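CORE FACILITY INTAKE
Project code: CF-77B
Contact: R.S. (postdoc)
Sample description: multi-component assembly, two entities in total
Requested service: structural model of the whole complex
Turnaround: standard
Below are the sequence entries exactly as provided by the requester. Do not edit them.
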Amino acid sequence: MKQKFDIITSTCVPLPLENVDTDQIIPARFLKATDKEGFGDNLFRDWRYRPDGSIVEDFVLNDPKYKGCILVAGKNFGSGSSREHAAWAIAGYGFRVVISSFFADIHKNNELNNFVLPVQVSENFLQELFQTIQNNPDTQVEVDLPNQTVTNKATGNSEHFDINGYKKHCLMNGLDDIDFLVANKDKIEKWEHQRN
Amino acid sequence: MNTLFDKIWDAHVVQTVTDGPTQLYIDRLYCHEVTSPQAFDGMRARGLKCFRPEQIVCMPDHNTPTHDQDKPIADPVSKKQVDTLERNAREFGLKHFGMMSKDNGIIHVVGPEKGLSLPGMTIVCGDSHTSTHGAMGAVAFGIGTSEVEMVMASQCILQQKPRSMRITINGQLGRGVTAKDVALYLMAKLTTSGATGYFVEYAGEVVKNLSMEGRLTLCNLSIEMGARGGFIAPDDVTFDYIKGKEYAPKGEDWDKAMAYWRTLKSGDDAVFDKELVFDAADIEPRITYGTNPGMGIGITESIPAEGDANFNKSLQYMGFKEGEKLLGKKIDYVFLGACTNGRIEDFRAFASIVKGRQKAADVVAWLVPGSWAVDKQIREEGLDKVLEASGFKIRQPGCSACLAMNDDKVPADKYAVSTSNRNFEGRQGPGARTILCSPLVAAAAAVTGVITDPRTLL
């Protein structure tokens, strides 16, 4: 999971739906595992497969035209349940970046904590990207974490995206928050002592 | 500035990471069986013990069956998850309220009712409805499993401080209008992302006049407008509710706590990043018609015509049309329960409508108390007799059909009138169609078999 992040250039998988909630990303009946493995197989399960298990051909994950490690989704991606299983499913499927014009708070943190980069772009940039991908599924997008830019290679349009310096450092160096917190135990004990 | 949110948050800041988030101290971590096993595994892999085990409370609720809890869980995968929580709690030395113990129930029902969630606390759980505990005057929010592991390891979490919003609701709620209707109204006004990035303080006459149960319902649904959490400044309603609870402070500790709790309010000069004001007179009993909780209307209104692809996809899933009224629509299932509406007041409300009436013959009704304590009170008040005389049966506590991780699944294409919190596609079972509402609306549907304005039955 702790995959170091730098510059990623890839084709994209477009999901031009808004308010995609984490129940759609991974339905509750698949949350019963006690480990983090295999969630990718059930990513978007009920949009990807019919109840009898047969494939829904026109769902984007089943369309061979679209591939790559960047998921592009409509605004308010990841709303609803806090289940980190949604981030495990996205990472497990092989996505390393999610581009959207708006992310739900908890899910955004969950992606970051699993070394999946949420890239928030303007609605205009997003809509243009959907259009370019529809016109040419081989459209490449470059996500440059060091410079915090995302570029639609087909149009050359580029945007800056936000990420705090600490989290950027973590992603680029394969570090997580627990490493940081455990190294700070003295400070926590001191804080507790002062509080009492 | 000088909001209650600032006061509680700032009082828990251990440090601010350079060019990064806040390191926030957490007073209480709750763990359930679904979002904790990977965190415990992570702790084992790092060779860590829980930093402050006495501040962590565990209980299974999502997978628990709502019948025959005294027998082993039939689904082996659910059983494994529930057993894993118990084993982890034992290994890490944590308090655990197991299934069938009198302490068990849905975490967000049990925490407040046992005095484990108190004013001024920071409270987290791997569950988005942790916002519920904000009703106690606490900063409470849902987190992911990696963050659960952070708190286990250090009793701290790294978070960006959200912005503050105050939602004031003035006036008096009309007959048959409940806290749930207020929340459904706010979601429709704000949409499911309207409060994303914010922590909400609820205020105004309506909020002040809500019972503790009503406040818990309102705060519970904060996440459905995208807010990380929502809370209400503690007052005498809060203090009366807490006093005497099992884990509440006692004696001198109570006096000391009260002295602090009395200070927990936003200053008169408080400045919020956003302020919204609503009037109770605009709120009627509400229902949802779509596949997110923001897609709701007053029960007498018609489904709006919006026409975009997302909207049409929702209506198609629900089998509804633009411009259609839902009053009189036949329904198949009724669910009373969940961390949203599984408390004693919700059962009283439901019973007040069904009393002297009979359950519609073709409706399947699941009435699921939020905890064993709620179940006990239902029986003490004789509500069980009222409900049974009307053809309803009370099931055993748990999250149940709210997210259908146990056997309580609504079949595909069936309409479920539900007091839960989410009407997402497949939430109550693959293909199930959920209509969210208050316990009064649910009861009115349960006895008539169709969507009915509860005010006609009061």
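Facility notes:
- The longest strand of chain A covers residues 7-10.
- The radius of gyration of chain A is 18 Å.
Invoice: internal transfer
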